[in-house]
Amino acid sequence: MTLPPIDAGRARDLIARFAELPVLVVGDAMLDRFIVGRVTRISPEAPVPIVRFESEHARLGGAANVAHNIASLGGRPRLVAIVGNDPAAARLRELLSTAGIETDGLVEDRGRPTTEKVRVVTERNQQVARIDYEHDTDAAAEVERAMVEQVTRLAGDAKAWLVSDYLKGAVTRGVIEALLRRQTSASAKAAERTPLIVDPKIPHLACYAGATIVTPNHHEAEVATHLRVRSDEEARRAAHDFRQRAQCEAVLITRGEHGMWLSEQHVDGTIPAVAREVSDVTGAGDTVAAVLSLGLAAGATLTEAAMLANQAAGIVVGKFGPATVTAAELSAAF
After folding, report:
1. Do 77 and 294 contact (CB within 8 A), yes or no?
2. Which of 266, 315, 318, 320 minimizes the C-alpha distance to 288?
3. What DSSP state is assigned to residue 234?
4. What is this structure's pTM?
């Protein structure tokens, strides 16, 4: 079943409401560094290309990219994440400040490096190699306590809570339970609870029970459910199974060029992909999660929020690296 498209006027009205909406983002912040050069020959020492350096730049990645997307769309993100005590942390803080994102929710862990991905790419944006600096073990007890304290401090007036899980140690059961406890105690009425959006990693699936919506890609859905996801019918079965396993209210499976499959209590269907030239899918899931959270915070239904996110993903995959979309770009898409 293909879900009917959102009315353009309604879409633009929701996007206009994004301005200044506070959204809490909890997860694994990263620094994405790009070393750009020209390849003209193969090394005589080994069968690898020689890259002649031309430039270098850095971008926000992971949960920091989610927060950047929220800020770019006019929202007001509060970021809770772990950083090390190193130059990458200083650069990450600098980029966040430049984007207008407060850094007081960052928790320093001197026992691990700031998660950093260094990509060597050609001037034509072809990736040659990637070097990762990271510790992917769960945060130590004292760091987890500091994360929970920041979550508790910043969650209060947020209109949506977003967990960006990259399995780099920031998202632990204790951190998610801190959000779920607030959600349960906030109101006896489910309709009045703050929506909790989770961009997941499958090893943590059991931790997400009680979330409003979880957004696996089709590979993650296959791993979690042990089901193939190639057709709409297979996506429907996997979405139902995923909802039961994750014990969440809804699931949105992102399927690349095949669009998305949304499954919730009263809605079950596909959202067709937006036809665009694809440059780079890096960070597209971050954009989807960001727009979903802003949409729900603005009063959209799950279906409406998913359709806004689908359009945003179609825009961002046309850009290189972890990119953002603006409210004007998203509004123009409708």
Report:
1. no
2. 315
3. H
4. 0.94
Show the tokens assigned to 333: 């898409």
165 is catalytic: no
Neighbours of 137 (CB within 10 A): 11
* Residue 9 Cα to chain centre, angstroms: 26
For the chain, give the number of residues: 334
Q: What is the pLDDT of residue 33?
A: 96
The domains located in the chain, with CATH, are 8-30+61-118+135-332 (3.40.1190.20)
Residue 294 CA to residue 17 CA, distance in Å, equals: 9
- Rounded to whole angstroms, the Cα distance separating 208 from 307 reads 23
Question: Which residue has 């026992």 as its token pair?
Answer: 111
Burial of 30 (0-12, 13-18, 19+ CB in 10 A): buried
Biggest alpha carbon distance in the chain? 69
Q: How far apart are CA 87 and CA 252, in angstroms?
A: 37
Q: Is the pLDDT of residue 188 over 50?
A: no
Q: What are 280-328's pLDDT values in tens digits?
A: 567 789 999 999 999 999 999 999 999 999 999 999 988 877 789 999 9
**What does each C-alpha distance from 318 to 148, 218, 273, 274 come to in angstroms?**
36, 20, 13, 11
Q: Say which of 32, 138, 199, 286 is annotated catalytic.
A: 286
What average pLDDT is seen over the chain?
94
How far apart CA 163 and CA 179 sit, in angstroms, is 10
β 196-199/213-214 pair status: parallel
